[in-house]
Fold each of these.
Amino acid sequence: MKEIINLPVKNVEEEEYHINMGPQHPSTHGVLRLVVSLQGEIVKSLKPHCGYIHRGIEKMCEKDTYPQIIHLTDRMDYLSAHINNHAVCMLVEKALEVEVPERVTYIRTIIDELNRIASHQLWWCSFGMDMGGLTCFFYGLRDREKILDIFEESFGSRLLHSYYTPGGLMMDIHPDFQKNVKAFIKYFRKKIKDYDDLLTGNIIMQLRTKGVGILTKEDAISYGVTGPSGRASGFACDVRKHHPYGVYDKTEFKEILGTKGDTFERYMMRMHEMLESMKIIEQLIDNIPAGDYKAKMKAVIKLPAGEYFQRVEAARGELGVYVVSDGNKSPYRMKFRSPNFSNLSVLDHISRGCKIADLVAIGGSLDYVIPDIDR
Amino acid sequence: MDNAALKERILGLVPDAEYQENKQFLTFIIPPAKMYDLAVKLKNEADLAFDFLFCLTGVDMVKFLEVVYHLESTTHHHQIELKVRTEDRENGAVDTVCDIWRTAEFLEREVFDLLGIRFSNHPDLRRIFLEDGWVGHPLRKDYVDEVNIVEF
């Protein structure tokens, strides 16, 4: 017994050791593995391992026609499925120089914004749950359900819609669409106050997020961190403002920029963005022009040889679609510049020196969707 | 700076760059040896200030492999596209730009993984999506995989 007692006990506070967070960890929101180097409970460095859900979407695109590719883009960032579809549709329309009816651009913009709100609601509820507030999860999902009901009524699906097609929409909106959207806005304006009461003003949440995971503006630009996470650092990167598409140039909304770039600021950006999205919808919902819901397109879509790039503002940042076409019905090479992939690259940089529990908050505030990282 | 002035400016920095007609971006094909020096100037010179690398990707054009950089300036809001070509399919290498634009670190790993273009001086050039023992690079046009890919 004496020998055992005299064994040298290593001081875990001083020694650096590694733990695997994931691939099946609830706070990574999907199959992502983070190899975290720890000293005590301080994060020294971190290496993300991706690829658990890599499906080779870019390779599959090389065999698919453009209308088929739209169904694949749903499956990247499934929480902003409409916005992903929008990117591919606009790219095809730009390449073929097709003018889409005004009705289509209005409906697309409204649905993009509804999609953004739904995505931020899901982010809010899972962020709350990461921080230990289970009530948030129920509140967020309850309100997101209202948007999904509107989607289901108009085009039959709740998550992976593939509603946009090159040249227009799969079908026209439901006659009750405008009425229901207005009812939702009225409902959610009241409910978003509950969000602030429940989580934003919560002292535990504020102490855990303020001053944690600070990202400077220079680093945000250098790492290509876009979307609400980039804007929290003061990086003016809203594609809707700087390279307008749809009818964003006809609407008034603010590009809200933060100054501190910490976890709390990233949280606040999304809360503000939900309000701005509602403002955009309110300006458009009564003005949807009458007309066709799709432009005439050829049965087989072939893009002229050349290269095309289309940028859109997805819920998590800038989505870029790059196509090299050789004139066939499938692209020669297709690349998706996914926002989550660039946002993930900054995680190591901003979580160094934080506690392991802060890593969960930082990860939550960067709002990953893993299938969009792996593609 | 408008596009014509920007074109002159960049051709002034790299006289042997080739200008390519493109509807959307000003496109330049840069000799691989000149790319790193040009990237430093593009980032640091005040009238250029290309600080945001919003896309980096590779294309297998069969005759050569190509790395495509899309750059934007967040102060002047101008954009350009740069291309670097290598004909060596086995050991073709391009200088890394990940110390200039940090986002390139992951994007270059992706290009290495899927297209097999090497980036010299990259701090951590490993496969990012596929497992370490994977044979070949799937986005190459001559890639054959009898097991996993279903032909349509």
Amino acid sequence: MIPYHRDPRQIIPSTAVKIIGLGGAGTNMLERIALDGMEGAELLAINTDIRTLGSCLAPEKIQLGVNLTKGLGAGGDPELGHQAVLEAEDAIRAAVTGRRIVFLCTGLGGGTGSGAAPIVTRIAREEGAFVVVFATMPFAFEGRRRRDQAETALNELVVLSNALVTFDNNRMGELVLAKQGIHDAFLAADQMICESMKAVIRLVIRPGLINVGLDDLMSALRTNRSRCLFGSGIATGKDRATRALRNALSSPLLDQGSLLKDARTVLVHLCGGEDLTLFEIELLMQSLQKFVPEEAHVLFGAAVDPAMGDALSLTLISALPEDSLAMAPRDSLSSASRDKPLPDPAPGVTPSSENEARTVEPQLESEDLWKPVTTPAPDADAPAAEKPASPPVVVAEFVAVTKEAPPEACVEAAPDPQQTDEEAERNAPGPGSSGGTPIPKKRPAGATPWSVTQGPKSLQPELAPIESFVLTPPLEPEGPKLKLGIKPVTPQSELSLDSTPRGRFEGETPNVIDGEDLDLPPFLRKKK
Amino acid sequence: MARRTKIHVGLEIGTHKTCIVVGEVKADSAVKILGIGETKSAGVRKGEIHDYSQARACLKDALTKAEDASDVEIGSVFLAVTGAHITGINNRGTFRLPDDEPIVTAEHVEEARTIAREVHIPQNHVYIHPIIRNYWLDGLEHSTSPMGLFGKTVEADFHVVHGIGSRLQNSIKLVREMPLEVDDIVFAPIATAQMALDREQRERGALVIDIGGGTTDYALYLGGVITASGCIPVGGDHVTNDIHLVTGLPFSKAERLKITEGDASADPVRSVGTAKLTDERGFADVEINRAVLNEVIRQRLEETLRLVRQRLPDNAVASIGAGIFLTGGTSLMRGFHELAFEVFGRDIYRPELPEISGIQASFKDPRYATSIGLIRYAQIFDTESAAPPGIFGRVARMFWPFVK
């Protein structure tokens, strides 16, 4: 097939993305983003308080109100925050110049966040950026005054920003179990914000089969005084379409999908491995119809990413007029915590697709991990060498597992030697003969992503065009190194647990009490 | 006032068998079992229905058998439910009397009861039983309502059993489709305890463990009142499954080995040599090392019992005076007594079924304990809820003595 270059204007280089953390809460979020590995995007921390700024991980920092507050915080006074930001206007302007998308993370209610956010947003808009604001609203117990301050700032932000995603701290309880530590609660909230940001970046940056871009995103979020609804889910296995939808809807921002019924425009973005079928998409969209009103404008996008293995990820973005959000019933604590959607879905949704791998510089961890075992010294830029290097069976499993695994584990875990060995074994016969290697039952035959020779033959006919996209040469030669967080490595023990046969109770939800799966024989469990 | 004979029906949809017991409660409170309809369950796993149509077919079959055996047309049943989602918690409601009212009235007691019943349960859960344990009046325990006494503070101590509403509704729906009415739903171990324990044993403290096919249900009675109840989703099926997973034998053979050869005691003497199954022609079919077989069984059952023990309140085991009563099909496992003694260190009993006339022998079987317990429960339920008939009732009875 003849590869062709995609029109580069459609795509925004990820160097043009800037993430700004403003104020104390914003800095915390930024830190989480930095830890979760969005290395590609530029991170900028802005604060009045020099202490938090000093300890922040962000590479770029701007101190506000050097003369006004002299390195102290704004003391909860938005007026002070407002004045402080005016002092540093030039520095901020310089930092956002030439950026196509600016994400502003902030906690409203305090001094710096509420006071400076509208100004920073305005500056970024003036510099021609698309500004998405992620704001947290204060807890109810913080009092009326802070709430009012937050509301005032929010009203300004609604007008100034292109898109606004708010997260109410009061709903934090839905993210974690009641007995979990406060640290976990904040972590979960930050993670959710981080995840939303990744999803937006993914949408805008990565071209898909059915493309959605900035224009679609803007129309999805375009309502007056709106709040953003966001949900993202990922699933593998047989009924992955329905489960991905369920996971997406269990996002606390969506209230189990009940909030979608008032939405006028819904952006749906699907990303699957090479075995993504039209039937699945149909199935998923059909079940989504139940939550979305008939007259709503559904902006649909789909992308195929071989690195997804047999996982399917779904992102829902919509906006809702603020008044209807206030009336919506609160999600129950138990249901939200039961299937917690939060723990970083990044591995599954990571765009280490073929074209992405070349858009993105080849320093994705996955590449590093897989490179040595497959080919002696493959140039990651060479498509042929890369293909066999993409993950075999393991992909599907770690995608599933990381959903439950705490994000720290993902960040810290080093590439597991055992896993690599396993791959080495599988790949040993060479990519061509991989058709003969044992494939788990779940995986359809056409889905062996590591086999180049087998690929085109076994792909289903309607997916044939995918190959052409997949083999598209680099779009941006200088390669923005946005790493949308491949963290493929999870503790090996969980992997093995997942693959253990369980006889009569196969396929049921694990019967876990005190961390032990009761469906497995104690005889085998205790022996380990 | 003499009561008339009344017929109650207990229904248990278990993981292994669906069982309907028709019992007659005579005027002197003796229970006579008229008939049992039993059929092998299908579509039930870990005590919960997962294949609705199969479960319905089984229930239909059991119902026909029970009606045939007892010669009674069954209209309504008491339904035993179980499942890992059902749990019991204790809660105490305190009500302080207004200053100008020194005597406890019915309203005050009712208020305390209402407070006690308002346990925080997850949103999708519903109450199954609020069971009154006892009352407290100014820190002094009263086993009956302290109405009419002098006091300042009334407290009501409740044991509240709750479970996921939708799952319970599905069980009820299944029964209603027969069509049968459901008089009440009962958490299985509570029904079993009605059968297994008498008043004295409850006073001294007793634990009932009902190990069935898919679940292990337990109910703890201390000082005459229920103290803890719950369900662990592990049962005889797991033992079979374990044998299957460890040895690779098919389920049918694993099941036969479990029943005919398995032993749960850690006694090394019983783990010598190999266990054999022969097929219908007398040839050796399956051979397995007894040590492995017994170890697999023992570890599973020991873990299950330890889970039960772990879930009981602290120091509860030490205050069990009467002993531990094992029922359910899996309790028939050889050596299970020894194992239970090892775990709990208390006297272990398999309950003797009290005062039942009829074809006794077949009912002296721990597998029927829950269903028969349901009849007992129904009897108690009836006694508690039956108000003495008013004047019209008495007049009516003179003409038509068969009404309730």
Amino acid sequence: MIEFRDIEIKYNDFIAVKNLNLKIAEGEFFTMLGPSGCGKTTTLRSLVGFVSPTHGSIHVNGKDITQLPVEKRDISMVFQSYALFPTLNVYENIAFGLKVKKMPKEQIEAEVAEIAQKVDLSQAQLRKKVSELSGGQQQRVAIARALVLKPSILVLDEPLSNLDASLRVQLRNELKSLQKKFGITTIYVTHDQEEALTLSDRIAVFNHGAVEQVGTPHEIYSQSATEFVCNFIGDINTLEHSIIEKVNATSGKSFDPAKAAYLRTEKIYTSLPEGNAEAFTTLTARVIDAEYYGLYTKYTFEIGGALLKKVEIEDGRSRCIIGNEIDIYIRPDDILQY
Amino acid sequence: MTIERIKRYVTPGRLSLLIAGLFLTWFIIAFLVYPNLNLLKSVFWANGSFSIEPFQKLLHSKRALKGLLNSFILAVSMVITVNIVGIFLVFVTDYFDIKGSKLLRIGYYTTLVYSGIVLVSGYKFLYGEQGFITKFLLLLFPSFPADWFHGYWAVLFVMTFACTSNHVLFLSNAIRKIDYQTVEAARNMGASPFYILRRVVLPVLQPSLFAITILLFLTGLGATSAPLIVGGTEFQTITPLILAFSKSPTSRDMASVLAIILGVATLILLTFLRKAEKKGNFISVSKVKSEIVKQKITNKWLNTLVHIVAYLLFIIYTVPVLLTVIFSFTDAYSISTSILSWEHFTLSNYKLLFTNADAYQPYLISIVYAAGAAVIVVALSLLVSRILHKYSNLFTTALEYAMLIPWLLPSTLIALGLILTYDSPKWILANQVLTGSMWILMIAYVIVLIPFTLRMLKAAFFSIDASLEDAGRSLGASAFYTFRRVLLPIVLPSTLAVLALNFNSQLADYDLTVFLYHPLFKPLGIAIQNATSGQTSSDTRALGLVYSVMLMVISSVALYLVYGRKSKA
């Protein structure tokens, strides 16, 4: 188990990470999620040993590793740029850490062959220069190089951010299956909420150097603990003052009109769901835009000057025609206010 | 307990860093700071109190004042002539559609291998009293003065064609980087070709041109070999005067004053350049850049005129090279009479170079000096670059600035500083006297090579993805192992390239060598200069030509290894 205890990391006067307390279970796929500069990578680097906390301690399986040098921590890292050594070929890159350990040559060959097979790298690819591989293959080399050392923890720093969208989805799936195959404790850093939601067992959402919420992807999405998390995860509408007042008037709820209130885009209905009709507030809206995405369509409605967005699965039966006025339905219980 | 703590603190890494720090501090003080401060002291505090007497002496010396004026005139005129020729060359090869531009480029690029003392001596060989071209002109016009090639115009002529290397290297590169879509956009808006050239193309080149102009001015001020060899008595400039003054103890203070003036001018101009550079270059904002397409000169007469001038310049550039090569294969008779005929062709000059110890000695000496200096400066700069790459604090900032001191100082001043400082035992050098020894030249070569080498190697280190080093560490490797196995192989190509360029630049150095060489161990630059003297035998002049040809071969190989292979990759 990994435990961050009261971690603070300062660069001169700037506090990159403040009062961080976090526990990560063995075998867990744990994601640190947040926007640029939120402290997630700094936290990860403190675990690996590239950054020393100004305060607090880091423990792995009960042992304090805060002062342990990088090379003695038994934590392997996959870098954002993969950091493959350009002057070494694929085989030499994977064997690098084993050579440092002064492992016999035959054993190195066997270990490299085994891991190469697991990550689906052929013998021919092992002899290639790293620059001759595709982005996906390079990522597999970076993972193989980290895993061949059989570390107790694998950390990945935005390893998919340099890839194009389709490859990112493909490699995301490969990464998940590899993690399951090896069962290794994995800590993943990303700013991409979709990656975090699809890959992780649990997510920590970072903001301004602090953790805002830790939870399963479902908890993070549907029970966002803070305004920041609610805004950062998924597509969301910020409800205007006039809509809040109408909801309060029709539902008897008492949302504070002075505060921001939020509603997820899929929580707006264009037809009244069956049963429990009284639980919904009806609003009259004009359809002003429709963005077609194939699987779904994103509509923009205008209600007395306020805009709302709605995502609707495309089934060919939509009654939203640009320019038309229609009734839309929202459930006050779906409104989030902090 | 205390020993344990010391052991934990004094790691091998920290110890080697401390030793490196101490060594670098000593090197900087002994060779980069102290000699130059001592030079200032020898001028302003010669008798233990502040005095400007040497300056007053200078103001009363007509010769020195004339030299200063000549240098200024040369610098200003060079800026004009070299820019006219250089810009023309670059436009002909890279902007306008000129027939045979590839051939022209080869001709114009000859200054990259046919430069410095080799070029000046080659021009003297052709245009001098006994020169091939002078004799040809005498045949056409018998009353033509045989000693026409000396003085201001001769120096300006030589310098104009010797100093276009920066144009063909940097300006042509800047032209190739122009986004052609900006030219097309201007044309689309109705601009004429000349208007496009003036308002679109030239402004983009302006920062490069400005930098080149400043460097040209400095080259003109500090010109050594051209005024020394073809300037004659009537056109003496600062550096040859410094050389003459430094040889006599009574006029050494004047030499120092002139060197300081040169240094101050350099400092002012480089500061000016830095300020201009800080304002920034024009950065293309194009999302998709398109390659420049050569422009046709639509005016038929202008097109013909440009072609004629382009090929005339081609002849000026290539004839000295060709004749140097041709005459290096002829006997003493041909060389002394400039008459070419089949029976006077011979390989004996080359045979002499490879078999006679006296003949090949300058080569060996220069190779040892150039190779030694290149290796030492690369090792030193690797160490400094690594420290700068890994640490960032007050010491590293000071270290970097100190190592760049030679960039701010003309080589003449560096040479004088060393000569005047280490002509007596100094504790900082363990009481060793450097002046007059073989070592002083090697040290001076190392000093002048530091700024270029450091800038290149530092750039190589800083271009490495920082996560590579982290990756090495996270895979369990020590800092030294990561450096040796990961970082060093990455910077090795740049290191070897810098090594080759350094070796090449010092092999036939003249400007610094002439101040510091050991009389018993004359390097190539001096041997070639000696061969141009009117009093030398034809055999010596033949050997001078062979030295020049061999230098061109070595330079070509070095440049091919550095640039040729890279451009193929």
Amino acid sequence: MNEGTLNLLVGLAMGLNLLALGSSRLPALIRTVAAQGVVLGVMPLLIEHETLDWRVAAVAMATIAGKGVVIPWLLRRAMRAANIEREIEPFVGYVPSLLLGAGGTIAAVGLARALPLLPEHSGSLLVPGAMASVLTGFLLLIGRVKAISQVCGYLILENGIYLFGLLLIHSTPLLVESGILLDVTVGVFVIGIIVDRIQRAFDSLDTRKLTTLRE
Amino acid sequence: MNPGPFLLLALLALAAGVVGGPRFPRAWLGVSLTASLAGLAAALGVLLGAPDWEWRGVWRLGGEAIHLRLDGVSALFLVLLSLVSGLGALYAREYWPDAENPSSAPRGRAWWSVLTLSMGLVLLAANGLHFLIAWELFAVSAFFLITLDARGRATRAAGWLYLAASHAGTLVLFAFFGLLAARTGSWDLGPMRDQPALASLLWLALVGFGVKAGVFPLHIWLPSAHANAPSHVSALMSGVAIKMGIYGLVRFSGWLPAPRGAAWALMGFGAASAVLGIVFALAQSDLKRLLAYCSVENVGLIAAGLGGALLAGAGNEAAGGNLLLAGALLHVWNHGAFKALLFFGAGAVLHATGTREVNRLGGLWRAMPWTASLFALGSLAVAGLPPLNGFVSEWLIYLGLFDAAASRGEAAGPAGLTAILIATAGALALATFIKASALVFLGAGRTPATRHAHECGALMRGPMLFLGATCVFLGLGPLGVWPAIARAAASWGGALSPVGEPPVALAMLGRAQRVLAVAAVVVGGALWHRVHSGRHRRGVTWDCGYAAPTARMQYVSGSFAGIVSGWFTWILRPARTLRRPRGLFPAKAFHLERVPETVLERVLGPVAAVFVRASNAVRRLQHGRLSFYILYVAAGLVAVGMFVWVGSLR
């Protein structure tokens, strides 16, 4: 029963990926990322069905708090400070992004079948979900020009890595998990400050204009 | 006599020189001379019969116990180092005074002590790791001395070129010492001729030490570095520093089993350096650059002698081999003495006139008689004319080569060819130094730069006089230095047996040289007397019928060297710009000629340009657009994934 619920949640996360690729408004994008963070945060509780130990619970709580609340809040603050609402002219348009994302998701499912997985993982959607999220993150990073959209891409990329990590949740020390989460939070915090500074200095958040300091 | 206390004294004195040199110039001179005398005492003690000195410390550096050794070969080089560094310190006091160089002179004193100390440690180190450390320190301190006056663009370029070439050589030496330690299981250095597996490593040593020694075509750094360094530094670099490369070659060709190919290479490249080095020297018009190229020639001579000795040792022709080895080792001293003398002389000219360009000089013998005479003496010595010291060592090398040529062994033909090449180089050296001395000191001054020339003071003249006397002594009494050379040859450790009794040829040569010297003095005195007896009418030189000749209508460097450079245009590749006088009243005409450093500018330069172009093409990927960078990462990830996937399918 847990297996089915877990797959349902991973499927939900994959759907949210496509939603992120298709949304042009930044608040919608941030909301999507937050929702994905909450979905991901619930997953460890479902995997650990025999005994609910405090470690897994702590990871789940921290993930939901970090990805679902703190990071979206930071992003929204940065967005308000920078005073922008939408991504006007992306490198890769929304329809092509969606097509690429969908194609990537299908390819990820196909590739996961070809991989030599452990028998207990072969029925789960975790691996294709992880690959699809990484791919979506890359697409957002490459295809968007506004710094905040790129941060969202980075977060989705990190979510994909987190999904991979769920396969190993019993063997990964708590310290590593919390370290990763802390890194991501601090990273977003710093980017939030930088976005504000870029906006003030250049009156734009277009990363295409930030090419002078290339060497 | 135990050399240990003397070496300790030298070490302490040099350390004091490094620390206190910048502040206290007088005290620095004192400790430098003390270090020189102590080093000289230690080295001469070993050369004149004391047993090898060996010391193992309890301290560790880089995990290895400190292990020093002073044997015949290191002592031979230590004599040269002590002598030239002491004289150079004396010379620098007048040549590079604090009053004119307030920032660079104090710095120069400290680096001078570091350089001397590190070269001494290279000679003493009996541990591969410590040898490398000392070698690196030596290379870096020499860089800071070359660029002592870093205001000139040419000096900075020369310094960087030196540093780059030097490190390329050091890289090869790292491979050499690393492999040596890996194959023998220890960093300790010593005779290892009984391990044939090490033979191939000698090739690495040839390249690594060849760069430092300046064997053609690895000499690219040498001309510009020696020309642009301050003259006392040039003297130390040319007289001693490049000999450290020779030291490495001598040391490891004696300690390692020598493959035949390496001996052939040493002889072949040595002979090639001898000829090409002096050809390039002849074509130069920069006095110090000319001297630098001449060092390439002399290094080639030493390398050819060493290669011949290795071949003779392998072919069981001990007599010829001993002569070659003795000639090569003696030439290390001889070249150190006369090249330091010539660089000191060139420094005196530069100091007096402010230019190294011989086409701007002329007629300086009136203003600088001491410098002119001593430079002429050095020129005779470097050209290998009897009765001076250059002839003695070249004579030994010739005899050894003739021995090999007459032996009908496999080395007979190449040995004969090498002898011919070296003789050619000798003839060209004579032409080169006649040109250099004549253009600088004879004739009339070509430009106003020569008008205010003045003789150098006692502190610059003293070292030159000392070196000139050394050249004369080594030339007239070759038997006197024979025990030292024999001692060094005995501890070489090659296949040759220790050289015992002095060869008969040397005793005869000494007598002939003395007779010749007396004859030269008598003839010279008679000529001088005739000229000054007043029976001759003085008139102007025949002026070719020009109504108003000027001093600029004299032969220049290019005209002296024209014919010989014409034979060697295939390697010299001179860049010429000619504008002939046209019409009845020609307004302007000129002939410019510049001889490039062929290996550097025509071979390495184009190769480097290809690399730069390729790198510039790759740099376009670095455009600053973040999205594309992430695309690169994604593409790289996919590529790695494909690679692994395809690999797993196989």
